[in-house]
Amino acid sequence: MDSATIFGARKTIEQVEEGFELAPKFDEKGLIPAVTTDYTSGELLMHGYMNAAALTKTIETGEAHYFSRSRQAIWHKGATSGLVQTVRALLIDDDQDCIWLRVDAAGGASCHVGYRSCFYRSVPFGNQIDAEPADALKLTFTETEKVFDPEEVYPGVQNPTKL
User: Fold this and answer.
1) Closest to 85 measured CA to CA, from 39, 49, 154
2) What is the pTM of this model?
3) pLDDT tens digits, one per residue of 42-63
4) Domains in the chain: how many in total?
5) Dihedral angle at the C-alpha atoms of 152, 155, 156, 159, nearest 10 degrees?
6) How far apart, in whole angstroms, are the C-alpha atoms of residue 77 and residue 81?
7) In a domain, 130, yes or no
C-alpha cells in the first residue's frame, strides 16, 4: 500500500469537506497533526504528527505510527516500550487537516515520561492566576504516579525532546 494510491488529490472544497475520498492536507513540512485518545474513556493521551508514510503505515497495520520531528523518522508507537497503540477508530476532520486516533494503549500508558497521558499537568487560567504574575505560571500535576519507569523502559536514552 502506498500513499499515492490511497490518498486522493484535493480538488474542491466540496470534495474535501463532503466527499468520500481521503485527501489529507499535509503542511509545508509534509506533516498533519494527530490527536490520540483512549478508545474506551475518551481521555486525551497524546498529540503527535504524521507524514504520508506514517499515516499509510497506520492505515495498513492498524497500529499507530507517527513522524518524530526531533529524529526526523517514522516512529511505531510502542516498538521500544511495548506500549503499542492499537487503532480502534481513525477519523479525519472536516477539511482533512487533522487526524484523530482512538486507541487501546497496551500497558496503560502513552507518555514516554511514564505517565498514562502526555497531558499530565494543568495550566492555571482565569481567576486562578494573579492579574500580573511576577514569575512563570506554575503548573499543577494532574497525574501523580507513573505507570512505568522510563529509565527501565528506555535504558541509557536521553529525553528525545529538543528544548
Assistant:
1) 39
2) 0.85
3) 999 999 999 999 999 999 999 9
4) 1
5) -70
6) 8
7) no
36: cell is 490520540
Q: What is the CATH number of the domain that holds 89?
A: 3.10.20.810
The span from the CA of 158 to the CA of 12, in Å, is: 45
In order, the DSSP letters of the chain are: --HHHHSPP---HHHHHHSSS------TTS-EEEEEEETTT--EEEEEEE-HHHHHHHHHHSB-EEEETTTTEEEETTTTTS--EEEEEEEE-TTS--EEEEEEEGGG---TTSSSSS--EE---GGGS-SS-SSPPPPEES--S-SS-HHHHSTTPPP----
pLDDT tier for residue 3 given thresholds of 50, 70 and 90: low
